[in-house]
């Protein structure tokens, strides 16, 4: 997945209002800042050890968000890494289902 899609319109952070809010919080807290620094040191040589998890709601299929991996996403954005590994799931009326199928085709607004 192209890292440039990690923005406030296309693939949003679930736990934060905007990506800037995630950056700011991680910068303020020493534990988070250290984790980001560690990721930024390891990603160029080792890549992501765990993929970023994306969620899509059945109710709002155009709404894609990072469900798990906010620190990894911020590190990727800061490093300017062009693509990232991910897994994804649907949130459906009968529960959450982690998918093995390819990510559904979408037209992201650029």
Class from secondary-structure proportions: alpha/beta
**Unreliable sequence segments:** none
SSE order, one letter for each helix or strand: EHHEEHEE
CATH architecture: Alpha-Beta Complex
CATH topology: Conserved hypothetical protein from pyrococcus furiosus pfu- 392566-001, ParB domain
Largest sheet: 5 strands, mixed
Q: Give me the side-by-side strand order of the main sheet.
A: 1-3-2-4-5
Question: What would the average pLDDT be, to the nearest integer?
Answer: 90
Rg, Å, rounded: 14 Å
Shape: globular
Tell me the name of the CATH class. Alpha Beta
Describe the fold and architecture.
- The structure is a single chain.
- Helix content is 34%, strand content 23%.
- The chain has 110 residues and is of the alpha/beta class.
- It has a single domain (3-98), classed as Conserved hypothetical protein from pyrococcus furiosus pfu- 392566-001, ParB domain.
- It has a five-stranded mixed sheet.
- A hairpin with a 2-residue loop joins strand 4 and strand 5 (95-98).
- The protein is globular, with a radius of gyration of 14 Å.
């Amino acid at each position: 997945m192209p890292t440039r899609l990690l923005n406030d319109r296309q693939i949003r952070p679930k736990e934060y209002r905007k990506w800037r809010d995630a950056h700011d919080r991680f910068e303020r807290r020493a534990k988070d800042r250290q984790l980001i620094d560690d990721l930024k040191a390891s990603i160029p040589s080792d890549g992501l050890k765990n993929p970023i998890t994306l969620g899509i709601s059945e109710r709002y299929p155009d709404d894609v968000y990072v469900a798990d991996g906010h620190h990894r996403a911020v590190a990727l954005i800061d490093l300017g890494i062009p693509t990232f590994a991910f897994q994804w799931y649907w949130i459906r009326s009968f529960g959450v289902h982690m998918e093995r199928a390819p990510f559904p085709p979408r037209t992201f607004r650029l």
